[in-house]
Amino acid sequence: MLHVMLVDDSVTIRRVMKNVLKRLIAEEVTYIEAGTGVEALAALKEHYEHISFILLDVNMPEMNGDVFLEKMRADSKYNNIRVVMVTTEAEKKTVVRIMKIGANGYIVKPFTPQTMRRSLQPILGRIGIELQDVS
Q1: Among the residues of the chain, which ranges form H helices?
Q2: What pLDDT shows up at residue 121?
Q3: For the segment 4-45, what is each residue's pLDDT rounded down to a tens digit?
Q4: Which domains does the chain have, with CATH numbers?
Q5: Distance between CA atoms of residues 25 and 6, nearest Å
Q6: Which of 61, 86, 106, 113 could link 134 by a cystine bridge, Cβ 3.0 to 4.6 Å?
Q7: Contact indicator for 81, 53 with CB cutoff of 8 Å
Q8: Are 46 and 8 in contact (CB under 8 A)?
Q9: Predicted confidence band at 134 (pLDDT cuts at 50, 70, 90)?
Q10: Does residue 89 carry a pLDDT above 90?
Q11: Per DSSP, what are the bridge partners of residue 105?
């Protein structure tokens, strides 16, 4: 079973991500949701041993996704957790900065199921998950 953390201040975006992932991933998935980086950090500390990957927004109240990612990457016990940024921030310098912090992938909103599949397959393929074709 996969455990996926969805971190976005928009409940609607989290619901959309969950619906797309349900189409892409054939196996059973448990979702851990957070609306801020602060909530995400607390959830990470509680569930990190089970989390397969995180879909993380950049712009959120209380703690941005890049700050969350920096805090996460500062602790080696979280090194095996893959993080994919899902954000409206599409500027090259922003993408480069976030990848340097430790993101494993990047998806620009608004996204399609095909876009999400293309971005996630290389990352999830490393943990043995083949995503379904949704075209």
Answers
A1: 11-24, 37-47, 65-73, 92-101, 113-125
A2: 95
A3: 999 999 999 999 999 999 999 998 999 999 999 999 999 999
A4: 2-125 (3.40.50.2300)
A5: 15
A6: 113
A7: yes
A8: no
A9: confident
A10: no
A11: 84
